[in-house]
Each structure stands twice: as C-alpha cells, then as structure tokens.
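During the reporting period the student researcher (J.K.) took over the structure-prediction task from the postdoctoral fellow and processed the backlog of single-chain submissions. One of the processed entries is reproduced below for the supervisory committee.
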Amino acid sequence: MLFLLIFLLMGIEERRQEIKGHPLIISILEVKNFNEITSINAALGDQVIQLLLDISRDHVRGSDIVRRYQDDKVILIFPETEFSNLNIILNRVFAGLDKWKIVNKSNELNIDLDIVCKTMASLDEAIVKDFERN
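J.K. obtained the following structure tokens:
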C-alpha cells in the first residue's frame, strides 16, 4: 500500500513542483536499536513505533503524511514544505519526543533514532525498490 502511495506521488511530482516551486520531501525516522528493544519485549518495539507515529502526527501539519514503514521506521511525507523549512518541523517532532522522555523519566528505555531526508526528485532507485517489497 505504501509503495503505491510513493509511486502515485512520483507520478504527480513533476507537475506539482512546477506549480508549488519546491519538491516533495520524504523523511524516514529509523529506530536504530529496534532489535535491542524487541529483545527486551516484542510488544515494546511496536509501542515505540506507535509513540513515534503519535508524536509525529501531533507535531506536523494536516497536509503531511505519517506512516509506519517496515518494522523499525516511520516515514513522513511533506507535500507542502520547502527543504529549508524541514528543520523547523522535525525539531517540533523531536521536541515532542524529548517531552515524552522527561515525563517517563523512570523508564530507562533509550530510543536511538537515525533520520534520512530526501526530496522526491533525489529519491534513489534503491529506496524505491525497497518500497516495492513492502
């Protein structure tokens, strides 16, 4: 389902970029220590991803798309964002995650995130093929 969305977006991207003047942006948040977390408790990994989904949805705009991708990733699609403004949006997401860590300070769980941001125009073939498999 997600790969269909990506290919649909790729199909309209060229025209949309002409109109809006900036490319579609895709960000992938990967929980680098996902296997470590699931080794503690399998359901805990799903809870961490759900937390990232909820926090991301709470801190992006209504026009942005937030979905789970594979087991250990959350994908954010920004159809109306200039790349230079992406940092502002992602900082809001990370601020939300930091608040969660403060509120749940007694929980020693560390969430180690890695982030990749690409414009649709620079989305490389390997990622597209990865979307096809999922």
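The committee noted the following: The CA atoms of residues 89 and 102 lie 20 Å apart.
J.K. will present the remaining backlog at the next meeting.
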